[in-house]
Amino acid sequence: FMPGAEDCSPIAFLAHMDTVRPTKNIRVITSAREISTDQTAILGADDRAGIALICAMAEGLIKNKIKYPSIEIIFTPAEEIGLFGIKNIDYKKIQSVRAFVLDAGGHAGTIVSRSPGMESISLQIKGKSAHAGAEPEKGINAIAIAGKAISGIKQGRLDAETTCNLGKIQGGEAANIVPALVSIEGDVRSFNTKHLE
Q1: From the CB of residue 12, how many other CB atoms can be counted at a distance below 10 Å?
Q2: What is the pTM of this model?
Q3: Residue of 21, 61, 77, 137 with fewest CB within 10 Å of its CB?
Q4: Cα dist from 158 to 35, 154, 186, whole Å
Q5: Which of 7, 18, 159, 173 is catalytic?
Q6: Options 6, 7, 79, 80, the catalytic residue
Q7: What is the mean pLDDT of each run of 10 residues along the chain (197 residues)?
Q8: Do 4 and 70 contact (CB within 8 A), yes or no?
């Protein structure tokens, strides 16, 4: 919390600390035009760029003795895996009624005024294992069932406000075993609550 001018209502600035993939052993390459990596790891600009901008703003306001409203800075974990950080904030402790979330792509200066809601999809399909060469008829192939189920689910852009994606599937133990378990993960996003449901 940065106390500021009392005649202004407080403003919150938010960014998340996690990245979409690990950034271990990142090698940063800088030039006059850009900051990138050697392509062996992600840069993690989502959302390290937001954190850097908020910190630079706070430093600049204090250093240059600029009058500002009270500012609440909120950095959350676990955004990429389901917005868990922001979902678990104690909102009673937040004084701001306006907030800027620094977490969007696009050109500098782009303002996003709304974002979709999201629901995670997590499915497990259970079959029955058996030796695929000796007695396949005793097994129930969970991958085959998953394939039929997935082919019946519309994915991509469902309408002007809604998308669906199944992005992860895992299953099976070995090529010679009828797979007994498949896990599927994905999400549905929509600007329309009824469509999301």
Answers
A1: 18
A2: 0.65
A3: 137
A4: 36, 7, 14
A5: 18
A6: 79
A7: 87 94 88 90 89 96 93 94 87 92 84 86 96 96 96 95 96 96 96 91
A8: yes
